[in-house]
Amino acid sequence: EIVMTQSPATLSVSPGERATLSCRASQSVSSNLAWYQQKPGQAPRLLIYGASTRATGIPARFRGSGSGTEFTLTISSLQSEDFAVYYCQHYNNWLLYSFGQGTKLEIK
Amino acid sequence: EVQLVESGGGLVQPGRSLRLSCAASGFTFDEYAMHWVRQAPGKGLEWVSGISWKSNNIGYAGSVKGRFTISRDNAKKSLYLQMDSLRPDDTAFYYCAKAGGINWSDVGWFDTWGQGTLVTVSS
Description:
A: 108 residues; mainly beta; 11 strands; B: 123 residues; 4-stranded antiparallel sheet
């Protein structure tokens, strides 16, 4: 089983600044990685797939990068609606997927 | 509009069974793999199970293998999760999720989620 580890667990950033979230896989997942955003009381929302492709309707301030075992989600110029929990998920092995434990992005 | 609506959650005693349903609309259901993902209250996301468009490929997380059964009815545009031998640690919101694309490279990420249905396992 591939274990996904996200860091930090909580990130405090001021509005207008940049946030950098990390995700590490216990073994290579190539570019088979997605990022999701979840706000309280809501279902997750897809942000990024293929490690770096933004989903439909996702603003350009969200950027995914990385491959293999190291991945980054960068959110430039944070808006108030961006404060949420973010999860990475690998889909490298058919029907054996796993998520990271999440990073909570909070207002500083 | 693509939409997924789960139903069937509720309070159930340990060891009993429950069947969840997910009604899909707004897309060609029989072209997409479908999945169940759960989230214990205040915790992270856990992929539970997935099924290919023709039901010939099915997978389960180790935590539910042998107890849960995923299925689909393409004519009814519906996805199901039969949950047997339920345990307190199965307590969670259960989300139905649609695969992002119809190609093999796109079956493992989820572009549409339902709002979830809460399953509580307690005596």
